[in-house]
Specification:
Elements (H helix, E strand, L loop, with lengths): L1 H52 L6 E5 L5 E6 L2 H4 L6 H12 L2 H5 L2 E6 L3 H10 L3 E6 L1 H8 L12 H6 L6 E3 L4 H5 L5
Length: 186
């Protein structure tokens, strides 16, 4: 009986040690993933800065494949293209869909300086892109720029809109909101 209890105890201790190692490994992977997410959001913020320098609104995004390579960048060109639909995400998605098929885009992630508007959120959904990570939330954006012009206010959180669809899109954000906020304070 003592031998059976000793075996059970050792087995339990071994299993607990395995679980602890798995949890530590999982946490390390999450931390590495979060650091990469921050790096890509910062890239999107830089693209947004470039957009503003060209006379457009300060919005930018990057598309990253499953291997962690930035494969496309998109910036807002509403003013220079005289096109109210030329949001950063729309410009990027138009290019992406010409180069990559739906299943490839399913394994890609889009990183945006700001939480996408409903039009861009829908484009992300229809393109097949599997993950969205954004910097500044829509709520914080409107706190900064105001809601005075009702023609430009369309507040629907990305998560809420994605939840209306049949396909799951992973959403992370806001991330680095203080850094992204600066785009709209300058």
């Amino acid at each position: 009986m003592k031998q059976i209890l000793a075996i059970i105890l050792l087995t339990t201790l071994f299993a607990c040690g395995q679980n602890e190692r798995k949890m530590k490994s999982s946490n390390i992977k999450k931390q590495i993933g979060m650091e990469k997410d921050k790096e890509y959001v910062r890239m999107a913020i830089e693209v947004a800065k470039d957009s503003r320098k060209k006379g457009n609104l300060p919005f930018g995004c990057v598309l990253v494949n499953k291997d962690g390579e930035v494969i496309l960048k998109g910036e807002n060109t509403i003013n220079t293209d005289v096109d109210c639909l030329a949001h950063a995400e729309i410009n990027l998605i138009r290019d992406a869909c010409k180069k990559y098929d739906y299943s490839y885009l399913n394994d890609c992630s889009i990183y945006t300086s700001d939480e996408p508007c409903p039009m861009c959120t829908s484009a992300i959904y229809w393109s097949g892109i599997g993950k969205l990570v954004y910097g500044l939330s829509k709520a914080e954006y409107y706190r900064i720029v105001g809601r005075d012009n009702e023609n430009w206010v369309f507040e629907m959180p990305t998560r809420e809109l994605f939840n209306k669809g049949g396909r799951k899109v992973e959403v992370i954000g806001p991330l680095l909101e203080a850094e992204a906020k600066i785009l709209h304070l300058e």
